[in-house]
Each structure stands twice: as structure tokens, then as C-alpha cells.
Design brief:
Length: 312
């Protein structure tokens, strides 16, 4: 198998036919040894039956279907585990990432790059608020982490099998694949593209999922928030020490004690806030450790191309 495409699918019934057509066109131009892998992340629409239909008609198409919604990053991981190609493309199922770009990526891949990621020079059809949020997230992440995670890139990329092997050696349950790939290293390069708006349907990434992905990215690749917690502790201690001296001097030297309620309530609520924030930061790391320690399977496959064939 020369090349595989891994496509996570969550309620993409309006995109699948177009996706299949454009992807088959592109991959068949690269090699006749290609496969298109759809990973159905428990779609609520008719995505799964459409995928099954395609797999029946065309044996270049394979699929996995999860027993529940495990999320985009896990769907991509599962697709990578299931893929057989020497080179594997990861691409969203909503046609925001043009499949045609894979040809250009493949040319770079043939020059010897192990990772060719797609860098977004513009985003169409995204609200100003989301644009600012994305832009600032990538820049904050860059400041926080020691590894260089490329700015303004998603998971749309072409990777070599050796990268998949290393990804499989990384045990974390809360995946942040673009960070993991940056961490792995090797010769990496990029191609630029304009990101299209979603072809059909709605985003499967509400704010809560985006926030989780952002925190996974930060906690997975940086311990700076923990250091921030301890420096905040030191700063607050120094400040409160100064306040203590001030209070004692006004009490005993000037005989005019500070008035009670205002100063008390300010310091109590301030310290309370600082403590909750730092506990929260520690909690984020501990909750991820606890998921890792449990070592549950990353995903559960309810059915795939092979199980379907056995039944026949
Ligand atoms: N997706 C998924 N599971 C989810 C949410 C999304 O597999 O729980 C898939 C979705 O079908 C798409 C990709 O992940 O192929 C990116 O999601 P989406 O386009 O909704 O995110 P956005 O581009 O709006 O950030
Ligand atoms: Mg999308």
C-alpha cells in the first residue's frame, strides 16, 4: 500500500459523496495502491450507512466505526492504527481542507520529508471571534512549550509510516496529535493553503471541545502553568509580608490600627482566588495523569470493513 487517507467522520452525510469523489481522484493519480479510511465517530446521521455503501462498491474504501463518540483526536489515532500506507494523509471530513493539496504534499514527501503539514494562510467562513481565539491560542502555546509546534496548522498533513510507529509508542490518552508529531521530529516541511469554509453541515467542535483540546495541548507539552502557580505563590507571599509589616507599624508605632472589614474581605477573597486557580491548574494535570494510569483502551471499535466481510 503506497498511500492512505484517514478521514474522521462525525455527522458528515452532506460531505461524504463529494469527499469520496475528490479523494479518489487525487489518490489514484498518485498510485493505484491507495486506500481511503473513514473513521465513524458515532455519527447520528446516515454517515455510517453511506460509508458502508462506499466500502461495498469500492475496495479502496475501508472504515472503522466506534461504539460511542470518542472525539476527533482519538478518531484520527484509530485511523492511523488501522492504516496500511507507506504515507498517510490526515484530513478533515468536511472539505475545509482541499484533498487536492495532498498531491503537492506527496511531492514534498518524495523529496524525503517525513512530515508535510498544511499551513493555513487564511481561513474563510470563520467568525472573527474564532479567528482571534485560534490565532492567540497557537501563539500562547508557542510561548509555553519548549518544542516548536508550527503556528496555524491543524492536523491536515501527510506523514510517513515511521511517524505513526512513534505515535503508537506515546501512551497519553488525551491526544494532541499535532504536538506529538512536532515532538517526534524528523525532517518536516509545510505547504501553504487557504482554508475553505465547511462544505455542508455544522461544526462538531463546540467551544467546550475546543477548550479541552487547548488544555490537552498545553498540559501535554508544557509544565509552565505549574511553575506559574508556584511563582504566583511566591509573589503573593512577598506582598502579604509587606502588608503585615505595614499593619504592624500602623498598629504599634502610629497607634492607628487599620480598619477591619474592607482589608479583611479583600485579602480573604484575593487569597481564595489565587488558591483556587492554582489548585485548578494542578487538577488539570492530575486528571490527565489519572486517565493515563487507568490505561483503558483508547477507543472501542464496534465494526469495521473486516467484521462486515466476515458476516457476509
Ligand atoms: N469530528 C470527529 N469527532 C467529533 C467531532 C468532529 O471525528 O467529535 C471530525 C469531523 O467530522 C471533521 C473533523 O473531526 O472531519 C473536524 O471537525 P469540525 O470540522 O467539526 O471542526 P472545525 O473545523 O469546525 O474546528
Ligand atoms: Mg471543520
Amino acid at each position: 500500500m503506497e498511500i492512505s487517507a484517514v478521514i474522521p467522520i462525525y455527522n458528515e452525510e452532506g460531505n461524504i459523496p463529494q469527499m469520496y469523489k475528490r479523494m479518489s481522484d487525487v489518490l489514484s493519480q498518485i498510485s493505484s495502491e491507495y486506500e481511503i479510511i473513514f473513521v465513524n465517530d458515532y455519527s447520528k446521521d446516515s454517515s455510517l450507512s453511506m460509508i458502508k455503501e462506499l466500502a461495498k462498491e469500492d475496495n479502496h474504501v475501508r472504515y472503522i466505526s466506534f461504539s460511542r463518540n470518542f472525539g476527533h483526536q482519538v478518531a484520527v489515532s484509530a485511523g492511523l492504527d488501522y492504516s496500511k500506507g507507506k504515507a498517510v494523509a490526515i484530513i478533515d471530513g468536511d472539505l475545509q481542507d482541499p484533498p487536492e493539496l495532498i498531491k503537492e504534499m506527496y511531492e514534498k514527501y518524495m523529496e524525503g520529508y517525513k512530515v508535510v503539514y498544511a499551513k493555513r494562510s487564511s481561513r474563510k467562513g470563520v467568525s472573527i471571534f474564532k479567528k482571534i481565539a485560534y490565532k492567540s491560542f497557537y501563539r500562547i502555546l508557542d510561548k509555553l512549550t519548549e518544542i516548536k509546534i508550527p503556528l496555524d496548522t491543524g492536523d491536515f498533513r501527510l506523514i510517513d509510516r515511521v511517524i505513526i510507529k512513534h505515535l503508537q509508542e506515546m501512551p497519553e490518552r488525551n491526544k494532541f496529535i499535532r504536538g506529538q508529531i512536532a515532538w517526534i521530529g524528523y525532517k518536516q516541511t509545510f505547504v501553504e493553503y487557504d482554508r475553505d469554509p465547511r462544505f455542508s453541515g455544522e461544526t462538531g467542535y463546540p467551544f467546550s471541545k475546543l477548550l479541552k483540546l487547548a488544555i490537552d495541548g498545553i498540559t501535554g507539552f508544557s509544565s509552565k502553568p505549574l511553575k506559574f502557580a508556584s511563582s504566583m505563590g511566591i509573589i503573593v507571599s512577598i506582598f502579604s509580608f509587606l502588608v503585615i509589616i505595614y499593619a504592624l507599624i500602623s498598629q504599634f508605632v502610629y497607634n492607628s490600627p487599620l480598619r477591619g472589614w474592607t482589608s479583611l474581605i479583600i485579602s480573604v477573597s484575593f487569597i481564595g482566588g489565587v488558591q483556587l486557580i492554582t489548585i485548578g491548574i494542578i487538577g488539570e494535570y492530575i486528571s490527565r495523569m489519572s486517565t493515563d494510569i487507568k490505561k483503558r483502551p483508547l477507543y472501542i471499535v464496534e465494526e469495521n470493513t473486516e467484521t462486515e466481510e466476515e458476516e457476509k
